[in-house]
Amino acid sequence: MWMANDGNYRELRYFTPWAKHRKTEDHYLPRMIQAITGQIKVPFGDAVISTIDTCIGVELCEELFTPASPHILMGLDGVEIFTNSSGSHHELRKLYTRIELIKEATQKLGGVYLYANQQGCDGDRLYYDGCAMIALNGKIIAQGSQFSLNDVEVVTATIDIEDVRSHRTQRSRSSQAASAERYNRIEVPMPLSDETEDFLSDVKLTKPIDVKFHTPEEEIALGPACWLWDYLRRSRTQGYFVPLSGGIDSCATATIVYSMCRLVSEAALRGDKQVIADARRIAGEPPESIWLPVDPRDLCNRIFHTCYMGTENSSVETRRRAKMLAEAIGAYHIDLNMDTLVTAVRNLFAYVTGHKPQFRAHGGSNAENLALQNIQARLRMVLAYLFAQLLPWVRGKVGGLLVLGSANVDESLRGYLTKYDCSSADINPIGSISKTDLKKFIRYARDAFDLPILDDFLDAVPTAELEPITETYVQADEADMGMTYDELSVFGRLRKVDKCGPYAMFTKLLHEWGTTHSPTQIAEKVKLFYFEYARNRHKMTTLTPSYHAESYSPDDNPFLNRLRLETLLISIKVPVPVQED
């Protein structure tokens, strides 16, 4: 037995794998079970089940992904049907890998592969995306939905087991099967099929199908949306609250919430009683209510709250974009200025210390400039939780709202965020999605959801709007970071997925960027990334729990394997901007 013990999984913390291959032991049943079944003991261990008409073997979740999967040896020993009860979480572009492994499992060996996958949120960062499948001799013949609000889905197919046996005669597997070690067989004196079906003309065999793959943009629209709905059901809260900045990140978060409302409305139109009951409870409807959540904008208005928290550094354009997006999706929107709060904190500091900090544009130092930016950012977090707690009360309802974060994976890896600002929230649907993928998602949602306002977000320059705008200076994220978002995505994948340290990353990028950058330029970019990554690790320990959509998620808890070089990188001498904390 092989168990998952990397990435998101630490199964060996709780379980001990069975290490006696092809061996069983007698397990004595509890007396209450003995009284019900009449059995005293059962075989326990590594075996296969033999019925009158076929043989069934069991493969566990991780074993499909291992180099020496059990289905290989079981298939050589005559097992014809393989089952896999899996807990495989969603990642962007992962379904293709999963399907190819399932097809390959029966292409060379021949056989039927029954794949069932968990569906729903685990109460933490992972979303299990379902997509149950049945494969026959290397072809998919049945596929369930990958993203669904249903708690349970059943996928069925009708096959002729003789197709497996004829497929196996076409391969040189017979020579290998002749020397294969034998599994213990648990004999079950019953057939899986009805002999009369062989002579019924109305029994139709299931034909191979074209596998349904979602684009990454569709996956972002559907996966986090299902995750948010499950979280809302579990938390027993009355909806979500998002501080809308007018930028693309909070825009993406809001659009995903709207996608969630669309999924709920589609389920309500199909008459899904569980979804309708959950929606009525979350929206604060009385038990006798007959309201149906069939309009996504109406549902959005009831459970989704947004707020633009402006200051003297905010632009008219970002305020307008935030308001128009909220109107387009139907969210309950508030627009406020918080300059009085910022001024009060600033004056308090001046009163206590006798020194009044100034922005850099007004002659202040880098330390003053950074502190004044952080005051604004952190006050927004305080206001977000205040409004999330009291807005349902303002609207005549009970309960509170969950606050959603809007920090993307690239900014988190770089450390380009203020600790305990609006990146600090209850959960974050985009926290492990790159800026590059988020832009693609917004383009998709513009057309799929009929939201032309999203064009304005795509055309806007990313900016924090925490410093005064002058004739010669407008704050821009990529200029502050010293690297572009596209470059950050590349750094993130090479660091985590390809296990690259600074030198390995440099050598790989020489081949990828060598035509547009000199070796010195590439080296400086790599050193800057690792410098910022290393010195900002303290920020990662407080990140909001995020939907896990990428294998290079920055979350420290529970699985990030830190590079041992981090402690050495602190001393790298490279020109860097002032640290954001």
3D architecture notes:
This protein is of the alpha/beta class and 581 residues long. It contains 21 helices and 15 strands. The chain has helices spanning 31-37, 70-76, 95-107, 162-168, 173-178, 216-235, 248-269, 273-282, 296-303, 316-329, 339-353, 366-394, 409-414, 435-448, 454-459, 477-481, 485-496, 502-513, 519-535, 537-540, 566-569; strands at 24-28, 41-45, 47-50, 55-60, 81-86, 112-117, 119-121, 127-129, 133-136, 139-143, 184-187, 240-243, 304-310, 332-337, 402-403. A seven-stranded mixed β-sheet has the order 10-9-6-5-4-3-11, with helices on one face. Strands 14-13-12-15 form a four-stranded parallel β-sheet, with helices on both faces. It has a two-stranded antiparallel ribbon with strand order 1-2. Helix 7 packs across helix 9. The longest helix is centred in the middle third of the chain and has 29 residues, at 366-394. The protein starts with 23 loop residues before the first strand and ends in a 12-residue tail after the last helix. Residues 556-581 have low confidence and may be disordered.
